[in-house]
Design a protein that fits this description.
The protein has 66 residues and is mainly alpha-helical. It has one domain. 73% of the residues lie in helices and 0% in strands. Helix 1 runs antiparallel to helix 2. It is elongated. The model has no long low-confidence stretch (mean pLDDT 75).
């Protein structure tokens, strides 16, 4: 699921990267959006994904392993 989110962020980044610059307001919008998207992209890559639940046999092994 995070790969789909990353692809959407990359597409949005490319859209704002190739947006034509016409005036100061467009430059500020472009800079703001590119920085926001880069920060979101970095967060999605840096945040560790939690491990899934252990299998039932692992729980049984922990209980009876003593």
């Amino acid at each position: 699921m995070s790969y789909i989110f990353d692809l959407v962020l990359a597409a949005a980044l490319l859209f704002f990267l190739f947006l034509p610059i016409t005036d100061r307001r467009t430059v500020m919008m472009k800079l703001g959006m590119v920085l926001a998207i880069v920060m979101l992209f970095a967060v999605t890559l840096a945040v560790p994904h939690g491990a899934g639940p252990a299998a039932g046999s692992a729980h049984a092994l922990l209980i009876t392993g003593n």
